[in-house]
Amino acid sequence: MRRRDFLYMTGMGIGASMVQGMPVFGKEISVEEALTPVDVRLKKRMADVALNAARSKGATYADVRIGRYLNQVIATRENQVQNIANSESYGMGVRVIANGSWGFAATNNLDNDSIAKAAEMAVAIAKGNAKLLVEPVQLAAQKGFGEVSWKTPVEINAFEVPITDKVNLLLNANNEAIKGGAKYVNSNLFMVNEQKYFASTDGSYIDQDIHRVWPTFTVTRIDPAGGKFESRNALSAPMGMGFEYLTPKDSEQIKGGPLTMYKKRYDLIGDIREATVHVAEKLKAKPVLPGKYDLVLDPTHLFLTIHESVGHPTELDRVLGYEANYAGTSFLTLDKWESKKFNFGSKAVNVIADKTEPGSLGAVGYDDEGVKCGNWDIIKDGILVNYQTIRDQVHILGLKASQACCYADSWESIQFQRMPNVSLAPGKEPLSAADLVKDVEKGIYMFGRNSYSIDQQRYNFQFSAQLAYEIKDGKITGMLKDASYQANTQEFWNSCTQLCDQDDYRLGGTFADGKGQPGQVSAVSHGSPTSRFNGVNVINTGRKLG
Amino acid sequence: MAILSKEEAQAILKKVLSFSKADSCEISLNGSDGGNIRYARNAVSTAGQISVMDLAVSSTFGKKTGTATINEFDDASLQKVVKRAEELAMLAPENPEFMPLLGPQDFEDSPTYNESTAAITPDTRAEMVGKSLQVSKAANLEAAGFLENSTRFDAVMNSKGLFAYNKRTNVSFSVTVRNQAGTGSGYIEQQFNNLDKMDTLSLSKIAASKATGSAGAKAIEPGKYTVILEPLAASDMLGNMFRGFDARSADEGRSFMSKKGGGTRLGEQLFSENVSIYSDPMHPEVPSAAWTEDGLKVKRTQWVEKGVVKNLSYSRYWAGQKGVEPVPFNRSIVMEGGTQSLEELIKSTEKGILVTRFWYIRSVDPQTLLLTGLTRDGTFYIENGEIKFPVKNFRFNESPVIMLNNVEALGKPVRTGSGMIPPMKIRDFTFTSLSDAV
């Protein structure tokens, strides 16, 4: 399979940086190659060459990122493996401030001469840009950390697991779907290891080893006579974990609702069995009647609503207009934050940004401009209290230090502000999803991400789910089809009336969130409990072609 | 320098191939040199120069294939990547859909490369952005934009003797201009192979005029309207449709091209009679490589003729299963149109909505290809052939298949993205809600 076919087939919209072919390392072959990072002493030497070259050409600040990016993808359909691919990408990006402007250059030739040339090129570009300067860059002070390191706390390094074990897991899952009556099934396993080294003229030399994993599938059932087909995707989450995520554990499952829900351990086989039953039900589901419903949103669905309607509009660069030409601006303008009384949501709504949450996609020790990670409130008791910042923005908010939201998806990309994990805090009173449903008279219970769209200032959105169940008088009465809800962000979050408790809290996430020009992807998690939103407008999206 | 000549690329590929011990081996080599400037709030925000080269090796034993890539080019690294691909292939299960490699082919050179684009420097980019900023500053507006250029080469070689090489250039520019109050916004984007066609000053003036003209938008009720889609908006809708031209998905019963009871809709009248669409790698305005990665020739292909589906895309494997010739897809689409300008389409409209562009389009129902998204950066009400006032943005829920059954008129196609797309006049376009976004 070709790279572009693979992208097309997975339909994940993953940026090129995610799928650049891939070196696979099973135990039978040179595992060491993947598992042995570049010697940290060599990286420090290379970084110093770049920093010294930048300084000698007039840079007042410089940082260097040396990145080795390993990706592994296994793609299957039905009883066959479509692709086992590995990518290894290794190089250096140099960012500088000279004459008050940013400049950046990147190279994958890591001899001293090429490194120095890249640093010099970055300075030349900065000086060229300075001719169009309005205000010089104001970079928040950052103490140097010296030589430090951070590693995702994985139990099983996914790159160490033999290829055959992974292939067998996917093919066994596919077999369950076919046995259950599915016509088609695709299953994929994505694994990422970012070996990143950061150094700056502040005196930091930071070595990080970051791991991510994402098992996913699509099960499809066909009704040829009716000319219909229905699919259901996996209800897994991409995680900042090792292969232990794929080791099922009863204590990490929530049962008792219409389907099994997974916390920090995922049962691929169990989920695909349920999905196979679901697609048959979807073919017979009744069309939704348009109108107002109380929505009960499971974390497998709600994470994306949080991402789009809370995560993105609280990015400070978007608020300020730096993203105006691509993803747009934000309705959460500075005056709303300054007022300290802008009702983003109901009092039940508390949203926390956290770059340290274990198992999350955004958990790292330090960001890509050498700032140590932490957590902070974004929405407190429904009020907008903060944004997400990087070093050259903090003066705007009068903060003392950056919130460590800087990230680049590759050594060859310019680091800029990216979303941290942004999560909805669970309710403080004990409440299970099953108990929450009992109070709903006319509602819809939604699971899984499906279609999602939001305007360029994050007011108007439309979302649909993998599964939608009708709730009548506190009981789940059956599956619905063609249900999408349309809402306005502030109205929607102000209609949030109930949140389940910590026991129901789960992470969802996106492996490839797009932003910036040239486009970059980043992986970010969003935790939430099952939550209730009253009186939301639901439309029917069924159509007929001639 | 990441741009290799045909001969230099051939030499590296031959060397890599000499390390192969597999039954068959395919290697692709590509590189790009380019740079960009991003600006916002009337000032440069980031800029960079990037040079990259990558090599991918696919090795096969029997029907077992492994792929590995690398971006280091010393002999040891090249040997390592071949070895890794071979180790992977030995570990891989058999691929029942494996297709034997194609032998030597005779590919045409398409006109994708332009010297003046390849010669762009950081100073060229700064100068072009400077012209754009002149416009916004002079009008007391705020601009955010992006200018990017690249020179790229792609080469493939396999152990059956196939070799192909293509070199291409591209320069792309987009700018969003907003008024200071944040009540009006305009946008334009354009890309060419040839730098000489790119005029950032004129383009920025169009975006600025939309920003000024769209201020103070009125809310009108959502519903079904006649719309005039500027080529950019039309292109946004069509891009999602062409994925459905994949024959395999259609045969498998999981696309809008699937026929009730089985089979595909090839040969059916699926769109209005005034809809004709083709692709041609030799098209002077939208050239593309005349070969695919797996060595197929890309030829002029008629996809839709007078509303009838003339071709679907067949991979080599699926073509073999169906006993037909493979048909590779080409994203450089040309949709034929009329001779009318956008202004003439507006003049002929009694009541309607002019749409500059769409945003955040996502599939809602793959069965009907229903899409949702929003208008953005300039939406206007038309009455009696004239633009009367700006209107608030709408969310739409519409299928491009239904849309192309409601075509009232098509204007003159212009380069839009990587295709040639006409402005379109469409009746009964479905807007489902209003947005406050500017």
UniProtKB/TrEMBL annotation, chain A:
SUPFAM superfamilies (UniProt xref): Putative modulator of DNA gyrase, PmbA/TldD (SSF111283)
UniProt keyword S-adenosyl-L-methionine present: no
Metalloprotease TldD/E C-terminal domain residues: 290-539
Domain of life assignment: Bacteria
Keyword Nucleotide-binding: no
GO biological process, any: proteolysis
Record keywords, A-Z: Hydrolase, Metalloprotease, Protease
Location of the Metalloprotease TldD/E N-terminal domain: 62-126
Any one annotated GO CC term: cytosol
GO molecular function terms attached to this record: metallopeptidase activity
Family statement drawn from the similarity comment of this UniProt entry: Belongs to the peptidase U62 family.
Protein name as it appears in the record: TldD protein
Organism the protein comes from: Pedobacter steynii
Lineage: Bacteria, Pseudomonadati, Bacteroidota, Sphingobacteriia, Sphingobacteriales
UniProtKB/TrEMBL annotation, chain B:
Domain Metalloprotease TldD/E N-terminal residue range list: 25-89
Leader peptide range in chain numbering: none
InterPro entries, per database record: Metalloprtase-TldD/E_C, Metalloprtase-TldD/E_cen_dom, Metalloprtase-TldD/E_N, TldD/PmbA_N, TldD/PmbA_sf
GO biological process: proteolysis
Domain Metalloprotease TldD/E central residue range list: 148-212
Molecular-function annotations in GO: metallopeptidase activity
Domain Metalloprotease TldD/E C-terminal span(s) in chain numbering: 222-432
Pfam families, A to Z: PmbA_TldD_1st, PmbA_TldD_2nd, PmbA_TldD_3rd
PANTHER family (alphabetical): CONSERVED PROTEIN, TLDD PROTEIN
Family in the record: Belongs to the peptidase U62 family.
Protein name per Swiss-Prot or TrEMBL: Peptidase C69
Annotated organism of origin: Pedobacter steynii
Lineage of the species this protein comes from: Bacteria, Pseudomonadati, Bacteroidota, Sphingobacteriia, Sphingobacteriales
